[in-house]
Amino acid sequence: MTALTTTTTTAAGAAAGPDRPSRPGPDTAEVGSPRRDRLREAFRWGALRIVALAVLLAAWQAVVSAEVWPRVLVPSPGDVWRQFVLASTVHDGVRGYGGHLLIEHLGVSLGRIGTGSAYAVLAGVPLGLLIGTVRPLAVVLEPAVTFLRTLPPLAYLSLLVIWFGIDEAPKIWLLVIAALPPIAAATAAAVRTVPDRLVEAARALGSGPTVLLLSVRLPSALPEILTGVRIAVGVAYTSVVAAETINGVPGIGGMIRDAQRYNQTALVIAGILAIGLSGIVLDALLRLVERIAVPWRGRA
Q: What pTM, to 2 d.p., does this model score?
């Protein structure tokens, strides 16, 4: 009887072999794909942002409706939207604001920011490398970088106007001076924290000072350098309004400054929103460049 039971069990097991797989239990249930989970999470956070924005707009409109402050000081979201549309289109023969569309004002400012930031990178990275690797130069140059970093842009704008006039030169120089210190400071700090084992290994392979700097120190410091560049672009962006207070039209900062003179609060807010939204896009692009240039960042 026992032998018969054993034989029957064995035959049943053979019948349920690879050709007839057993039904999976709850522990072996299929797990959702990572891509689907990421999409679901992105949708959830996106919905949260939309809800937060809707609440903010509703609170804004409630404050305007309650007339807590005069309409000239706090315009409604609808007023701001109308000014945004007027500044972005041709209406009654008038082209945007000051003869330029809002996107053109923004494009001119972004061009100035890009030029100033590019010059700051070209000067700030080598300066940071020297500060981080040559001790005597660090003693002399590091206090100067710190001095520039603590100065507000308006403190030296008047001096730049005296030196370079009221055309493009003082605006570009102001953005360069504003963006250079974060890049130099980030580069110097990153170079100093390069692991000693990498440096010693390169020296053991016969690398000289120049090869050591370009092949070991600079690539190892690149993630922090790119972070410094992102910070510097943000500083340049916050300084563009100050840079465009002098003959800044066309330019988003000049447009805001000009609208402020005539108490066009809705247009000022529209310009501020344009700066903020474009800043978000620009920072996202810089993050993308960072992920492409240093894909190993954040990985063990």
A: 0.76
